[in-house]
Amino acid sequence: MRPHIIIRYIGLIFLFNSFFLFVSLLISLYNNDSGIFPLLYSSIIAFIFGIFPLIYVPTPKDITTKEGFLIVVLSWLFTCLLGMVPYVIWGGEFTFTNAWFESVSGFTTTGSTILVDIEVLPRGLLFWRSATHWIGGIGIIIFALVVLPNIGHIRAILIKNEFSSLAQHNFIQNTKQVLRVLVIVYLGLTLLETIALRLAGMSLFDAVCHSFGTIATGGFSTKNLSIAHYNSPTIDIIVIIFMFLSGIHFGLLFYTVIGNKYNVFRSGVVKFYFFSTLIGVLLVTLNLYFNNYFSFFGSLRYAAFQLVSLSTTTGFANADSSIWPSFSIMLLLFFTLQCACAGSTAGGIKVDRIFILLKALKIQVKKFHHPNAVMVLKVDNKSVNPEAVNNAILYIVLYILIVFISALLLTALGVDTLSAFSGSAATMGNVGPGFNMVYSLGSYSAIPMAGKWILSANMLLGRLEIYALVSLLYYRSWR
User: Fold this and answer.
1) pLDDT of the residue at 273
2) Rounded CA gap, 127 and 29, in Å?
3) Structural domain count, the chain
4) Which segments within 282-352 are labelled E, that is strand?
5) Does residue 149 carry a pLDDT above 50?
6) Is residue 66 a part of any domain in this protein?
7) How far, in Å, CA of 82 to CA of 86, rounded?
8) If residue 162 lies in a helix (H) or strand (E), which one and from where to where?
9) In angstroms, rounded to a whole number, what is the distance separating the alpha carbons of residues 232 and 332?
10) What is the pLDDT of residue 342?
């Protein structure tokens, strides 16, 4: 293990973050707001800690898999520490714990906030808050890899540790091309949504910030009432479309646009994602309509937005879903756990694992009637080896266990059951809002301080898919 190599790459991440801090500073300078000095000091700190390792540590010819793993995990942890610096300096509602929670929530694209009054923040700080989503959405490592020297094996090791294993097999290109695909899709979707929201009536600043939150499936808004502030069906539709697209494997989106036969229309996982979301929306719509909450089209509008928002782990809101019927709340909780596709910016268990689980259950039922039959689980006509199936099922069990344990700890701190469970599920899945105390138009400000640290750990566990962060505790594996 070579600590100086790890420090060099973490420095590169700091330097990358310093650029966005500097842009945030320029916005504060333009508006002459109270974010100038917090962002100035933070950008200087990020630049200094970023530039020195690059100057004094030579570019390595190779890195080991363990070094790549530590680079990824420590980059996330130190980036979250850096992200909280402007919040702490600015003050207001940002205690040390609150600043850490907000920073982790931003970079992991969770979108849970401790802020009661978001609109009191200076514009520069609002932009930085949204930028943390955009930086973390596709992965801080991915952006850094774009500017790394063209050393294929280093890129391959880092991208392997950054990406979900479920996402990796869906790419049919080499590492350099994978990076190009990811960045093109990410930038393209961000630009298209910004233009669409601007044409729909948002200011350019709000359009950029909400595009950052949508494409990263994050959910930080510049308004206290989130998307509900605009009360615009047009804006709702635009955001729904881009939330849904951002929940699809980016590689498949790219292949679809360029006319490759391997596209979203041939993917069994994407079909399952689409139809499960459609059925969920229709069920919630009917439940709201027959319980006289809204007109039919009003029910459809709010049901579609809230369910797509939660299922893609975006977390924007256009209504207070915590007062909806229990049936709707239970469906929303299910989609909070399932979420969208691997290879997207979404978190959660992911549709891919649920899809594999259902196919495994189907095979198991068939084997009960035909015990001697040899059956192979396939996804898109490709065999899935038994180890991958077991890993998917084990991950689902471990995921739900962590949600349960963290919810149990929150109830021990005095949090009510629904708030504890939905908050744990929402942070573990990087979704954002839950119900009751942590409802869609509210915040996590009322959660006890210890609870915020528990939920922050959930966010990191969910973003790094559990094993990466847990493995960091095994010091012997570092050697």
Assistant:
1) 96
2) 13
3) 1
4) none
5) no
6) no
7) 8
8) helix 152-162
9) 22
10) 86
